[in-house]
Amino acid sequence: MIRESRLPLFYLSALAAVVLLVVLSLCAGAVRVSPGAIWSAVRGDTDGTAYKIVRFVRLPRAAAAVLCGAALASSGAIIQSVLRNPLGSPTVLGMNAGACLFTMLCAVFVPFASKILPFAAFAGAFVTLLLVCALGKKAGGSRSSVLLAGIAANTFFTALADVVTVFVPDTIYGRTAFKIGSLAGVQFSVLAPAAAVIALAVVAAFFLRNELDVLALGDETAQSVGLSVGAVRFCALVLAALLCGAGISFAGLVGFVGLIVPHSARVIVGNEMRHLLPASMLLGAALVLLCDVLSRVLFAPFEVPVGIVLSLVGGPFFVVLLLKERWARHD
């Protein structure tokens, strides 16, 4: 953990890394665009090929990577803080499975309304969160109950999605594409509503940061100082669902961001939400941008979905984290 006096330098460095990765994202791809061509396009040269590539393909994609990374990392930071579990993430609470199921149902019953698919993903994450909170409250309201309810919801909604593919085989392709996670073909028209939801949820999370810090000390400690533990936990998890649903609505089930980034940010800036949230957002944006660039460069001219690259990075990290938790218990 770095000293608080050096945190501004860390934030500036992280922001500079995000800006550099955005520029790299605009340049890299099957058709390479030089920084000079990008600068010409920015200055108003709208006739060249570079402008069309940057404006209609790569700029929306870079913006999607930033929004997706920031949203999922923030969601994971809130979940881990509320549940006091470093392994907590939107996937553990079943939000991803709920979003996938609702997206498939929308594709089945409203096949010609593709523009509402992002809203279906958000609705799935939100409804799953409400169900998990209700089940957790019935089971005692503890953080362990919420985790177990999330695991049960994840299994149940995944099974329902499999049932849909059995009766409507045409949805297999859509489900596969959504589960892998990809930023290809994202447009600003899809990003706009998601960006608004992400901005509102992040602002609300900052207003709730002090309560989240108290809640992270434990239920008994929080209750002893007069904090309404159940209400704060519910509000925080609702914000996590909003961030998760908005993030995956245009990117699909991009995994491990909500697990890797908050854990890494906590090592750097500590547990206080006033530092953890902005650090998670910056590191999340940088991670997704980097993996998206690698997905286009490593196997060019072929492109690997960014979700696969993130899984290749996140899988070993998750194993190391599990082993670390086991060693900590034995110590």
Give the class from helix and strand content and strand pairing. Answer: mainly alpha
**What's the total helix number?**
14
**What are the secondary-structure elements, in order, as H or E?**
HHHHHHHHHHHHHH
Show unreliable segments. Answer: none
Report the C-alpha radius of gyration, rounded.
Answer: 20 Å
- Termini, distance in Å? 21 Å
Number of β-strand runs: 0
Helix amount, in percent?
Answer: over 70%
Q: Globular, elongated, flat, extended or rod-shaped: what is the shape?
A: globular
Largest sheet: none
Characterization of the model:
- Helices cover 77% and strands 0% of the residues.
- It is mostly helical and 331 residues long.
- α3 runs antiparallel to α11 (229-251), α4 runs parallel beside α6 (143-167) and α5 (117-138) packs across α6.
- The longest helix is centred in the first third of the chain and has 35 residues, at 49-83.
- The two termini are 21 Å apart.
What's this model, at a glance?
The chain contains 14 helices and no strands. It has helices at 7-27, 35-43, 49-83, 95-109, 117-138, 143-167, 171-180, 188-207, 209-215, 219-224, 229-251, 257-269, 273-297, 306-330. Helix 1 (7-27) runs antiparallel to helix 3.
Indicate the topology.
Elements: H1 7-27, H2 35-43, H3 49-83, H4 95-109, H5 117-138, H6 143-167, H7 171-180, H8 188-207, H9 209-215, H10 219-224, H11 229-251, H12 257-269, H13 273-297, H14 306-330
Task: Give a quick set of tags describing it.
331 residues, 14 helices, mainly alpha, 77% helix, globular
